[in-house]
Amino acid sequence: KKFCVSLRMLNDELFIGRDDSSFEHFKNGDFFLGEQFSVVECIAGPWLQRFLVTLPYFRGVDFMAEILPEECTRLEKWVRAVTARQSVMESACSDDEILAAARKYYVSYLSPGAPGVL
């Protein structure tokens, strides 16, 4: 629940909550800086990829369909734009590599009903 509240805040404050006219150009485009792909996306891209692969596998939930609040349309658009960008896709590890790393270093608990194997 707190995570969803944080997602709503991110959606509102970073994308549509800017009233200052100096931020007007950030409202257009799919990225944090509007149409400009920035260091924010460079940092977030690999994390998003890992999150979107490991969460369904180890926890049995789909972030986009089951966790992201429906009203966070701007945040959803951003996640899709980042993960669909060619440079992000070309630099990504395969799903198998992501899952192998998660098994080895990060995962100590498998949610009941999740399809993953530790």
Compact overview of the structure:
The protein has 118 residues and is an all-alpha fold. The protein contains six helices and no strands.
Task: Describe what you observe in this structure.
There is one protein chain. The protein has six helices and no strands. Helix 2 packs across helix 6. The chain is an all-alpha fold and 118 residues long. The relative contact order is 0.16.
Keywords:
118 residues, mainly alpha, Glutathione S-transferase Yfyf (Class Pi), Chain A, domain 2, 60% helix, globular
Please give the count of helices. Answer: 6
The SSE order reads HHHHHH
How much is the radius of gyration in Å? 16 Å
Ranges with pLDDT <50 over ≥5 residues? none
Cα end-to-end separation: 27 Å
So what's the CATH class?
Mainly Alpha
Mean pLDDT: 82
Shape: globular
CATH topology: Glutathione S-transferase Yfyf (Class Pi), Chain A, domain 2
Largest sheet: none
**Structural class by helix and strand composition:** mainly alpha
- DSSP helix fraction: 55-70%
Could you give the count of β-strands? 0
Strand-residue proportion = under 5%
Total domains, how many?
1
In CATH, the architecture is Up-down Bundle
InterPro entries: Glutathione-S-Trfase_C_sf
Pfam families: GST_C_2
Protein name: GST C-terminal domain-containing protein
Organism: Proboscia inermis
SSE inventory with pairings:
Elements: H1 2-16, H2 39-59, H3 63-67, H4 73-84, H5 86-91, H6 95-106
Organism: Proboscia inermis
InterPro entries: Glutathione-S-Trfase_C_sf
Pfam families: GST_C_2
